[in-house]
Structure formats: C-alpha cells, structure tokens
C-alpha cells in the first residue's frame, strides 16, 4: 500500500448548480497523481478551479463525478463520517490566512490539533518542540504568536501541520504574505519534510518565486481543466 500514490484522481469533475437551469463546471475531467515525496505546484488564473480541486483532494468537498483514490483506497461514495476521520488523520492544510491563535504561544498552537482530540502526553510535547526546532524557531517556543514575524508564523503553521504526521499536505497560496527570501527558505523546508515524512504535497500559488522554484513539477489549470 505504501508504494501507491498518495493521491490518484481520474476523470474528476465538479459542477455547481445555480437555481434550476444554470450550472458552472469548476473542474472538468481532471486526471492527477501525487506520488510519495512529490511536491507539485498548481498554477492557473483566478477562478480556474485551484481551490475547488484542493478542497476535493483534502476531503473537505466531494466531486460530482470521477474517481479519487487516497492511499489506494477509493473514497467516492464513502460516508461523511469516514471522510472526516480520514481527513483528520491523514491530511494537513495550510492556507493564506494561517489561522493561528495569536494570544497563545508557538508551542500551544502546535499542540492545539492534539488538544482538540485527546489528552496531551509528554511525547506530544517533545514532538512539538522537536518540530519547532526543526523549523528553525526553537527559540520562539514560548513566545506568543502575536510577537512573531510573518515567516516565523508560517513556520509555526508547518510545525502544527506536521503534528499528526500527514500523508498529504495541501497549501492554498501559503506564501501570499511572505517576502521572496522567506518563501524560498520555507519551500526548502517543505522539501526536507517530504523526504523525512514520506508524504506528498500540493501548493496552489500565483507567486512567481514559488513557480520558479517548482519549475519542473507545475500543474497548469485553466477553466477547470489540467492543461499541462
Ligand atoms: N461553493 C461554490 N458555489 C458555486 N460556485 C463556486 C463555489 N466555489 C467556487 N465556485 C466557482 O468555481 C470556479 C472555481 O473557483 P476556485 O475558487 O476553485 O478558483 P481558484 O482557481 O481557486 O481562484 P483564485 O485564484 O481566485 O483563488 C469559480 O468560477 C467560482 O466562482
Ligand atoms: Mg483559490
């Protein structure tokens, strides 16, 4: 099972219906594979379907038709409760807004996803501290997020995303508020994470720094179709 792609999507479509007779095809027959340790960059104009695709891959939304295998398992038609459990266990999200709780410390933010589901253990704390140190912000562990820079906050987000050892990391325009030097250092961090954690990653972006970095693993989308 661990050799199969994390994500395998075939002929996936998403149609939104408005009223009785109007419909909008946000995704049109998308085929896509995300192997382990791969990092892909989703690029396309505004409204081309990037967020829609990421939400479906992240099990936040479902497709209108087509097949989606996650870790080799067909998820089409699974009950909502099963999808929610799969998502909680296997998928980490990073958004343009980082949704950190600014009056809490870095460490508390990283521990939050665990606190929400069970009692904390000493090993959770050790893991969170190790992750923050790996992100290069070991000295900020007990600082409130409100006192951190944009790049430091993004690193807290990555550490928080890694707390549950995800199979798939999904980032929707994660660099929107970062300067290009910080963006590059975070992309390098992502690369080392993939190697170490054996997961896959997909990032959507309009940011030329990110697009240049990915140059040979770009997925272009236009009007809901993958064009490259
Ligand atoms: N919940 C929804 N209901 C109806 N239409 C939607 C919904 N979500 C998205 N759409 C439509 O689907 C199309 C794709 O939207 P999507 O948000 O995926 O684009 P995007 O590529 O992420 O754009 P951006 O770069 O601006 O974030 C758009 O035409 C949008 O208006
Ligand atoms: Mg979007």
Please describe the structure with a list of short key phrases separated by commas or semicolons.
four-stranded antiparallel β-sheet; globular; 7 helices; six-stranded mixed β-sheet; Rossmann fold; 10 strands; alpha/beta; single chain; binds magnesium ion; 228 residues; binds adenosine-5'-triphosphate
List the helices and strands and how they pair.
Elements lengths: L6 E12 L3 E13 L4 E5 L6 H8 L7 E6 L2 E2 L5 H11 E5 L10 H10 L6 H13 L15 H13 L5 E5 L7 H18 L2 E5 L3 H7 L3 E5 L2 E2 L2
Parallel strand pairs: 3-8, 3-9, 6-7, 7-8
Antiparallel strand pairs: 1-2, 1-4, 4-5, 9-10
Helix pairs in contact: 3-4, 3-5, 4-5, 5-6
The chain binds adenosine-5'-triphosphate and magnesium ion (MG).
Tell me what the structure shows:
With 228 residues, this protein is of the alpha/beta class. It has a single domain (7-99, 150-226), classed as P-loop containing nucleotide triphosphate hydrolases (Rossmann fold, 3-Layer(aba) Sandwich). It is 35% helix and 26% strand. The chain is built from 7 helices and 10 strands. The strands form 2 sheets. The protein has a 6-stranded mixed β-sheet, with helices on both faces. Helix 6 (180-197) links the parallel strand 7 and strand 8 (200-204). Helix 3 packs parallel to helix 5 and helix 5 packs parallel to helix 6. The radius of gyration is 18 Å and the shape is globular. Bound molecules: adenosine-5'-triphosphate and magnesium ion. Adenosine-5'-triphosphate binds at residues 16, 24, 26, 44, 46-52.
């Amino acid at each position: 099972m661990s050799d199969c792609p994390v994500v395998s999507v075939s002929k996936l479509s998403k149609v939104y219906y408005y009223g009785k007779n109007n419909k909008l095809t946000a995704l049109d027959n998308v085929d896509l594979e995300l192997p382990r340790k791969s990092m892909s960059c989703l690029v396309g104009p505004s409204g081309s379907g990037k967020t829609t695709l990421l939400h479906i891959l992240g099990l936040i939304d479902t497709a209108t038709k087509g097949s989606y295998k996650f870790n080799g398992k067909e998820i089409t038609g699974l009950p909502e409760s099963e999808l929610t459990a799969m998502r909680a266990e296997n998928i980490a999200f990073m958004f343009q807004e980082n949704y950190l709780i600014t009056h809490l410390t870095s460490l508390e933010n990283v521990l939050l996803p665990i606190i929400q589901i069970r009692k904390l253990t000493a090993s959770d704390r050790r893991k969170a501290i190790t992750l923050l140190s790996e992100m290069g912000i070991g000295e900020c562990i007990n600082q409130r997020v409100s006192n951190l820079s944009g790049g430091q906050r993004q690193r807290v987000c990555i550490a928080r995303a890694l707390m549950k050892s995800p199979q798939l990391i999904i980032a929707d325009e994660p660099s929107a508020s970062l300067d290009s030097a910080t963006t590059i250092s975070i992309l390098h961090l992502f690369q080392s994470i993939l190697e170490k954690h054996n997961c896959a990653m997909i990032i959507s972006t309009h940011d030329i720094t990110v697009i240049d970095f990915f140059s040979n693993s770009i997925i272009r989308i236009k009007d809901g179709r993958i064009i490259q």
